[in-house]
Design a protein that fits this description.
This protein has 358 residues and is α/β, with parallel strands linked by helices. It folds into two domains: 191 residues, 3-Layer(aba) Sandwich (Rossmann fold); 134 residues, Rossmann fold. The protein is built from 14 helices and eleven strands. The protein has a seven-stranded mixed sheet with strand order 3-2-1-4-5-10-11, sandwiched between helices. The chain has a four-stranded parallel sheet with strand order 7-8-6-9, with helices on both faces. Helix 5 links the parallel strand 4 and strand 5. The longest helix has 22 residues. It starts with a strand and ends in a 7-residue tail after the last helix. The protein binds 6-O-phosphono-beta-D-fructofuranose (F6P). The site of 6-O-phosphono-beta-D-fructofuranose has 11 residues, from loops. The site of 6-O-phosphono-beta-D-fructofuranose (F6P) has 11 residues, from loops.
């Protein structure tokens, strides 16, 4: 009998259920009734607290298109994993304990960067781990793409499209804040796909005077509005020169809830045109996975089952040139994948006159 645990950890995204389904269906195909699948509730928290349930094949039916995660999720910061807090709980010991109590042959972990670091830690502690890369941020090294990303691009693009019509009607400029944490993948794709005039990314620090100049030029050229797609992690040239600590302090002291409000206030002092702010927020992580993600999740899930059959562990299932391949967790854990500033997309965007505020 094979016994496989599965959990989803960190911020949710589209495709988690599609990937869970992919793993489960491929395991049942491979091992028939010689496999038991245990769903761990709410990510690593469930592993720490021993909160799990034996799943049935029916649990995995009808979930391909379902948003969120049937297993629940939680954020359990990696930095705290090896720290025994006030509750006196040794989290790593407990996680190993749950794994051993269930006599698992493998644990499949669906999550982003933080989740991956803990997955690597568990692998180093002797657990048989397979990681599937999920996040709308697309910031995981060792894979060309993460699931959730393409679905979020569709939503963020729809926001930019929708804002275009109202911006045209009123002749207003709009600052649209796009998720993506410390990287600009989502903003770059949605900005280009939605026809933004200015795209601001964490990878390219912006100059506020330059942005004001671009907006004024467009106004002079008779354009009624400008759309700015702004990554939530976008930073100014001044901020890029600060240490991490200084930046954190400056952000904490800032009167603005997020970056678009700060840019809005600064632009208001420089241009006369009306500006509005739009923050779609967690809406970008919600709802059904797009077709691309459904296919990707099915591929990743099937590959995870194959690796379990081959007893190949301590890996992430990455996608490289369209192929799903095992990538050692020790090689990629903790490595952020940022947007290369000279990538094709940025070059193409510049060639058609999109400004990056630099
Ligand atoms: O990592 C996914 C993500 O949606 C980021 O884009 C965003 O910065 C963060 O999670 C938001 O986290 P939370 O769901 O904890 O508010």
């Amino acid at each position: 009998m094979k016994r496989v645990g599965i959990l989803t950890s960190g911020g949710d995204c589209q495709g988690l259920n599609a990937a869970i389904r992919g793993v489960a269906k491929a395991l049942y195909e491979n091992f028939g009734d010689k496999v038991e699948i245990y769903g761990i509730q709410d990510g690593y928290r469930g592993l720490i607290q021993g909160n799990y349930r034996l799943m049935r094949p029916d649990d995995f039916s009808g979930i391909l298109t379902l948003g969120g995660t049937i297993l629940g999720t939680s954020r359990q910061p990696f930095k705290q994993m090896s720290v025994i807090g006030e509750d006196n709980v040794d989290k790593v010991k407990n996680m190993k304990g749950t794994y051993q109590k269930l006599k698992l042959n493998a644990l499949v972990v669906l999550g982003g960067n933080g989740t991956q670091k803990t997955a690597n830690l568990l692998s180093e502690n002797g657990l048989n781990i397979i990681h599937l890369p999920k996040t709308i941020d697309n910031d995981i090294t060792g894979t060309d793409v993460t699931f959730g990303f393409h679905s979020a691009v569709e939503i963020a693009t729809a926001v930019v499209d929708g804002i275009h019509t109202t911006a045209t009607s009123h002749g207003r400029n709009f600052l649209i804040e796009v998720m993506g944490h410390k990287v600009g993948w989502l903003t770059l794709s949605a900005g280009i796909a939605g026809g933004a005039d200015v795209i601001l990314l964490p990878e390219i620090p912006y100059n506020i005077d330059k942005i004001a100049e671009v907006l004024q030029e467009r106004q002079k050229a008779g354009k009624r509005f400008s759309i700015l797609a702004v990554a939530e992690g976008a930073i100014s040239v001044e901020e890029s020169q600060m240490s991490k600590k200084e930046l954190k302090k400056a952000r904490a002291a800032s009167p603005y809830p997020s970056v678009v409000y700060k840019i809005n206030a600064e632009l208001q002092q420089r241009i006369s045109n009306e500006i509005r702010v739009c923050v779609p927020g967690h809406f970008q992580r919600g709802g059904s996975p797009c077709a691309y993600d459904r296919v990707l999740c099915t591929k990743l899930g099937a590959k995870a089952a194959e690796l379990i059959a081959e007893e190949k562990f301590g890996v992430m299932v990455g996608v490289v040139n369209g192929q799903t391949i095992p990538v050692p967790l020790s090689e990629v854990a903790g490595k952020l994948k940022s947007v290369p500033v000279n990538c094709d997309e940025i070059q193409a965007a510049r060639q058609i006159g999109i400004s990056f505020g630099d």
